[in-house]
Structure formats: C-alpha cells, structure tokens
Amino acid sequence: MALLASALMSHTAHRPGLRSHIGPNGDNLSWHLSSSEKSKRRCDLIRVRSRAWSSEVGQEHLPFETPRRDWFSHEFIFGAATSAYQIEGDWNDDGKGPSTWDHFCHNYPEMIANRSNGDVAVNSYHKEDVKMLKDMGMDAYRFSISWPRILPKGTLEGDKNYEGIKYYKNLINLLKENDYTHFAKVCFEHFGNKVKHWFTFNEPHIFYSFAYGTGEHAPGRCSPERKCATPSGDSLSEPYRVGHNIFLAHAEVVDLYKKYYKAGINWIKSYPKGLKDLLMIIKKRYGNPPIYITENGTADVDNGNLSMTDALDDSKRLDYLQRHISVIKDLGADVRGHFTWSLLDNFEWASGYTARFGLIYVDRNKGFKRHMKKSAKWFKQFNSTPWKVINDKHGDTVVLNPAFGQQ
Length: 407
Fold this sequence. Notes:
Layout: E1 4-10, E2 18-19, E3 34-35, E4 46-52, E5 77-81, H1 84-87, H2 100-107, H3 130-135, E6 140-146, H4 147-150, H5 162-177, E7 181-183, H6 188-191, H7 204-214, H8 238-249, H9 254-260, H10 272-285, E8 291-298, E9 300-301, H11 308-312, H12 315-327, E10 335-341, E11 355-356, E12 360-363, E13 369-372, H13 374-384, E14 389-391, E15 397-399
Parallel strand pairs: 4-8, 5-6, 5-10, 8-10
Antiparallel strand pairs: 1-6, 1-7, 2-3, 9-11, 12-13, 14-15
Helix pairs in contact: 7-8, 10-12
C-alpha cells in the first residue's frame, strides 16, 4: 500500500467551523476540509488544482500588473507544496515498507520516462528543505506523509515504524520552530493532536483515471488492448468503480464531488483567465466558500539537455505564476491561499525527472544541492514586503497597521 496523506503547515490561526474527516481509500488516502454545519451539505473549502504542462506559456503578450504582497490580506497564505514519494527517497531505509509506486517503478520501469524511480528522488529525507521555504518567506508548506514509512506492512495489525514517525515529528517540529503551525493531514494516533484541518482525497481524478484507466500510474491497470503494466483490467469500468468508492468514502461531501468534478481538457497552455472564471463560478454557484489553491505551477521539460543556467532562469514559470496570482485580486471571491507546485524539482510520476516543476533547482548529480531559481528569488522579495506598508505619492512610508510588525 502507499498512502499519500498530504499535510499543510502554515502559521495561520485556527479557523472555526472546520473539522476532520478520514477517507478510507486503500492506496491513496488524504483528507478534505468540509463544513461543520451538516445542514449546509457543502464544502467549507473548495480545493482548486491547476498545473500547466508545457514548455510554452500562453498569454505572455497580454499586459498585466506584477502582483504585490500588499494586494492580499495578512491572513492570505502563500506557500509551496510537495509529496512524499516525489521528494523523500530512502525507499527501503529506516524500516520503511514498499509502496505501490515502489512496486510499479521496480517491476515496470518501461512505464517511467528514462526508466527512473523515486528510490532516492531528491533526497529530501536527509535534507532540511524547511530552510529554503523559510528563505522564500513562504507562509505555509503542504507536504505529504508516506503510509509505508509509518505502517510498513500497510495495516494497523503490523508493526509501526517509529523511525518514520520520528522523521515526520521532527519535520513538523522544525516547521513549528520556524513559525509554521499545522494545517496538516497526518496520521491520527501520533499527529492527530497537532491537526486542526483535514482533507479527504487528494487528486481523486488522477488516481482513478491514470491508475485504472490509462494505466500510467501505479498500480498500472488498464484493458488488454491498451499498453500498460497490468493489462488485465477494464479501462471502461474500473475508473468508475474506483471513483464511486472514493465518493462513498468521502461521505459528507459526495454530492458536491459529483457536481464539481467534470472531465475536461488535460494539460493545456497557460490561461490565467481560466482560473479567474473558475473562481467566479465557485463563488456564484456555492455561495462564495473559502478557497485555497493548493497546487498551481508549470514545468520545464528536461530530457537531459537543460543546463542548470537555463533552469535557474525560469522566466516562463515566473510569468505563469505572476499572471495567475494577479487574477486573484479584486474578484470578490473568498480566496485565502495559494500553494505553488512545487517547492522542489522532484520525481514527477510517469515523467520521472524530465519535468521540473520546482521553485528550487535540485542538482541530482552533485549531492542533490539546492539552488534558488529566479521564481524562488521573486517569491523571497514578494514575501519580504509587509503587506501593510506602502509608499505614498510623496515617497513617505505609510504603515497602514502598526500591529503588522508584531505578527
């Protein structure tokens, strides 16, 4: 089994009206925020995911105003996101058991670009990437917890791996020491007393369509006429059965998911107006619920010919992020946070290491050394400007809220 239990660490205060839910999905478990008022029968938080897969970014010819931190309230969260298998490495050390992705990559390497895997990934298990997050001035970190690192045999009947528990406790404590408190999806027994907000399923459409439809993702099931690792499935029915079970486990918000999730165009060019339109649709259709954009980013294709110099000068990614952040302004939608995917260049599932999504460049040939890209340096400058300090027309500094410096 492989648990992708994402966790968000932020320094925001606990917001009332949110409570935890567990979604008991075997291979891909995470949680989703929902309303504390059952009568509303709707999500208290809508999760918006946007990831562009293209070396070209559209709309760059259109003018836009470079976003500033003072456009957003102090409560607005800017963060970055990662997931365990894609960054940690140490796939069989310190008591960790095998995950579905370990099995998939080891037994069907031809399904992954360049036959790569996450055995070492970007070695985040032995790195303190929290420092880079802090250097960029990010408010929050959305990370994930590996099920087999906590439960090597996959069930509660097996032994717990206390080395794995220790690793995540140390990570959470390090985040807290750096002024990050938890907005986390973690395991109840050892982390539950630290968790205030929970999600249910992370990217369910990816899980059931790619894992049981096209067979591109673990466990790699598809119909016999398709080419995949395990061509003994049924691409026409299994994704729907898996999706149905996901919705049932999602219990209180199953109706919302049936209405909200629709098939669409996959991996199109950058279109910031699409994010703006989506936010306005959510605002009007669902009564303006709180929204956290938990993944938004674009990749640079690296087939071994992308130099570090070119990768660090990620102007297209910076343009993409600036344009998307800029459309959030003045919508009237209750957008409370934006998480960039990803904090680090990582193992990008079937694409292996050929797609670099990170704000941070990882040199896998030189000890996994981290380097800030142009986009990371921009976030550092962006987040270092107090949102409540502006310059008036005479050039004098005006502090709109003196209490800001005490936050």
